[in-house]
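User: tokens in, sequence out, please.
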């Protein structure tokens, strides 16, 4: 109908919608193994989209939420300026590495603060965490450490078998064999 009022796309949220959003934020914060708040100002939509896609692959999400709603969800937060929230649900370190690398590559934005479990993190600690190996990298190194001695034993045993074959070949030649 031509006289029908269409809702505006950027209408302010109602109080009930804001309360629902705060409840969703609280639930996500409680589920996350690590949380990082970052200044995303200056990132293009494509950069944000690429970052979100990479984070989804490691079961993490990157959301932009008003600071007032974040503060209602967690009154201990002291955030200023544009803030995006990284929520890591499985591996605590991989998403942080992805975020820090994306911000560094873009030379825009920075990490502000965060949490690893119950431990509060500042920017320096988050940057330091981003240099740690991921769980998968640690697993690979552990397997390498465990396999190295076995490979050494295998090499020694193969050497003994090789020497036996050489000795039998030499014995065969001495006895007039082919």
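Assistant: Sequence out:
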């Amino acid at each position: 109908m031509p006289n029908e009022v269409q809702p505006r796309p950027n209408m302010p949220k109602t109080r009930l919608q804001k309360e629902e959003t705060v409840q969703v934020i609280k639930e996500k914060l409680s589920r996350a193994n690590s949380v990082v708040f970052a200044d995303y100002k200056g990132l293009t939509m494509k950069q944000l989209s690429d970052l979100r896609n990479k984070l989804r692959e490691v079961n993490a999400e990157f959301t932009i939420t008003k600071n007032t709603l974040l503060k209602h969800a967690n009154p201990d937060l002291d955030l200023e300026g544009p803030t995006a929230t990284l929520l890591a649900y499985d591996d605590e370190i991989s998403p942080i590495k992805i975020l820090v690398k994306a911000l560094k590559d873009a030379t825009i934005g920075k990490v502000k603060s965060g949490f690893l479990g119950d431990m509060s993190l500042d920017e320096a600690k988050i940057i330091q965490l981003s240099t740690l190996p991921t769980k998968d990298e640690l697993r690979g190194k552990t397997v390498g450490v465990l396999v190295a001695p076995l490979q050494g034993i295998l090499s020694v045993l193969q050497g003994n078998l090789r020497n036996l074959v050489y000795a039998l070949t030499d014995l065969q030649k001495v006895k007039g064999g082919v």
